[in-house]
Amino acid sequence: MNFKPSAISLQKIKTGLGCSVKTALAGIGQIYFQPTPLSGAAILLALCLTRAELAAACLLGVGIASLLAWACGFSRSLLTSGLYGYNAALTSAGLCALYQPNLALLGWICAASIATTMLSHAFLRWQRLPALTLPFVLAMLLAHAVGPVGGLLAQAKASNAGLQGPLSFLLLALAQVSFIGHAALGVPVLAALALHCRQQALSATAGGLLAWCCLAAGAAMWPDSIITLNTGAIGLNCILAAQGLAAAGRAWRWRIGGALASLLLCCCATQLGLAYFTLPFILASWGMLVCSAPRMSPSSPQPVSERSESAAEVA
Q1: Which of 1, 12, 39, 74 has the fewest CB atoms inside 10 Å of its own CB, making it the most exposed?
Q2: What gap in Å lies between CA 195 and CA 239, rounded to an integer?
Q3: What is residue 99's three-state secondary structure?
């Protein structure tokens, strides 16, 4: 028997593949609060130019998360907007960036992608506060604590480059949000942010430059102080706080307040010798979201805290 696929069947396959690619790219873009294929593609390209395995791990993570969300019958609108996949994408890239490739790493990526997806779903059902990158932080802290026992082998740590010029600092901190390794590769990421939402791009830029000013002032007054350590981590937390609060429709005073709170929390965590990843951004953003109300404007996207509520079909 000869089987000849019909045009309708081929069209369905092409449509399904197109939707899957868009969903995956939206999930990657959501790392920066932007559920657009363009932003996801820019991030993925920058990861590939940093290290090809980072891009592969990111795609594997978001693919597992999207497939799991689809198989479990989770909200289709939230799935296609990337809200189930971004933590898995970020965690997979982070694990690949910090640990050497082996079978244990592959197992961790698969398990973390499943766990972050389920935790993201729990937050979307709860609807009181957005998950932000909390699933990613919990997965990375678990790997930090028990990874060597579970077969993970740490990569050689890159030395802290110190405080660079404001533009280099901004671009590198923006890139390091998703473990992109070069400041120059922050340019396409920032361009993609600006194309989708200028308010978010301006807020991210303001958060990064504010962090640089505070770090420069601190380094001038206390050259050997703790503020000269982990400059990249401090910068990316400030950037995420300012941009995330812009995505949530908060006014500028709350965005700046969130960035400053993130900076203080980073310094406290560093003083205590704690690994924190993006936890300062999460805590600062939650605090500002609880204390403020969204102020919508035509240039502002729907608030993060309300985006999940508007999609009420969460299982």
Answers
A1: 1
A2: 17
A3: strand
Q: How far apart are CA 41 and CA 188, in angstroms?
A: 10
pLDDT one-digit tens code per residue, 115-149: 999 999 999 999 899 999 999 999 999 999 999 99
> Which residues, in sequence order, are CB contacts of 172 under 8 Å at separation 6+?
164, 182, 183, 186, 232, 235
| Cα 55 versus chain centre, distance | 14
Confidence check: pLDDT of 292 > 80? yes
Answer whether 98's CB lies under 8 Å from 154's CB. yes
β-pair partners for 99: 154
Could you give the 3-state DSSP secondary structure of residue 60? helix
What is the dihedral sign for C-alpha 171, 201, 45, 89?
positive
> What gap in Å lies between CA 73 and CA 49, rounded to an integer?
35
Is residue 295 predicted with pLDDT exceeding 80? no
SS percent in the chain: helix, strand, coil, step 5:
70, 0, 30
Pairwise CA distance, residues 174 & 30, whole Å: 14
- Alpha-carbon gap, residue 13 to 43, rounded angstroms: 26
Residue 11 is encoded by which pair of tokens? Answer: 């069209």
Q: Are 281 and 262 in contact (CB under 8 A)?
A: yes
- Tokens 């694990």 map to which residue? 95
pLDDT given for residue 313 in this prediction: 44
**pLDDT-based confidence at 109, cuts 50/70/90?**
very high
pLDDT tens, residue by residue, 235-251: 999 999 999 999 999 99
What is the rounded CA–CA span in Å between residue 148 and residue 163?
Answer: 31
User: What predicted TM-score, i.e. pTM, was given to this entire model?
Assistant: 0.88
pLDDT given for residue 11 in this prediction: 53
Nearest to 238 by CA among 215, 214, 258, 218: 258
pLDDT of residue 309 exceeding 50, the answer is no
